[in-house]
């Protein structure tokens, strides 16, 4: 069922969810493969049983952590593209539903999807991940700095969440960029 939004967009919740699910499903194939014996094998790592892969301890190898960071980035990016008013609104408040703000949210979202796909492909190929991670660190550090500079003009929950996510991603990405390639 379609409903018209005040800015002229037509949205379907099912359509947004379907697009989001399809992209994440495809990205999961870049991060994890099953071989014929029922083993889950992160690309570039030794085989492990499916249950072991799902229940693995928090101690991940650097490549697995980089894949997890990239999948998280892709999820945020797809969300910004598919439902910019919801995700962008959580970050910037009521202005997130303005058509002009949605333009920036979608542009930011596709940037994150591109960075995620580039990083995942580089990890799968076994080279070039460092450069992709460094670009991601620059983007995340900029997101952190811009959010910090905006201060109280942003809703506190969105500001704190973005500072935590962008700051954490920048720190983890920087460490991974030093460790990989």
Fold topology:
Layout: E1 3-4, E2 10-11, H1 13-31, E3 32-34, E4 39-42, E5 48-49, H2 50-54, H3 62-82, H4 84-92, H5 99-125, H6 129-150, H7 156-179
Antiparallel strand pairs: 1-2, 3-4, 4-5
Helix pairs in contact: 1-3, 3-4, 3-5, 3-7, 4-5, 4-7, 5-6, 6-7
Question: What does the model show?
Answer:
The protein has helices at 13-31, 50-54, 62-82, 84-92, 99-125, 129-150, 156-179, and strands spanning 3-4, 10-11, 32-34, 39-42, 48-49. The protein is mainly alpha-helical. The protein has one domain (3-179): I/LWEQ domain (Up-down Bundle). Strands 3-4-5 form a three-stranded antiparallel β-sheet. Strands 1-2 form a two-stranded antiparallel ribbon. A hairpin with a 5-residue loop joins β4 (39-42) and β5 (48-49). α4 crosses α7 and α5 (99-125) runs antiparallel to α6. The termini are far apart. The model is unreliable at 1-17, 29-40 and 43-59 (pLDDT under 50).
The string of secondary-structure elements, in order, is: EEHEEEHHHHHH
Shape descriptor = globular
Total helical segments: 7
Largest sheet: 3 strands, antiparallel
Strand elements, count: 5
Order of strands, widest sheet: 3-4-5
CATH hierarchy class name = Mainly Alpha
| Helix residue percentage | over 70%
CATH topology: I/LWEQ domain
Backbone structural class:
mainly alpha
N→C terminal distance: 48 Å
Low-confidence stretches: 1-17, 29-40, 43-59
Q: Estimate the mean pLDDT confidence.
A: 79
What's the Cα radius of gyration?
18 Å
* Second CATH tier, the architecture: Up-down Bundle
- Indicate how many domains the architecture comprises: 1
**Beta-strand proportion:** 5-15%
């Amino acid at each position: 069922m379609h409903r018209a939004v005040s800015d002229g967009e037509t949205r379907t919740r099912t359509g947004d969810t379907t697009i989001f699910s399809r992209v994440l499903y495809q990205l999961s194939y870049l991060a994890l493969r099953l071989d014929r014996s029922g083993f889950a094998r992160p690309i570039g790592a030794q085989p492990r049983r499916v249950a072991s892969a799902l229940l693995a301890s928090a101690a991940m190898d650097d490549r697995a952590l980089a894949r997890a960071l990239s999948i998280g980035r892709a999820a945020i990016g797809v969300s910004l593209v598919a439902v910019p008013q919801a995700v962008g609104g959580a970050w910037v408040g009521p202005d997130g539903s303005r058509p002009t703000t949605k333009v920036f949210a979608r542009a930011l979202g596709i940037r994150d999807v591109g960075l995620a796909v580039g990083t995942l492909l580089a990890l799968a190929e076994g080279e070039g991940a460092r450069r992709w991670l460094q670009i991601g660190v620059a983007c995340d550090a900029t997101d952190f700095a811009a959010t910090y500079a905006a201060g109280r003009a942003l809703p506190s929950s969105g500001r704190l969440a973005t500072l935590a996510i962008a700051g954490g991603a920048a720190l983890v990405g920087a460490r991974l960029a030093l460790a990989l390639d």
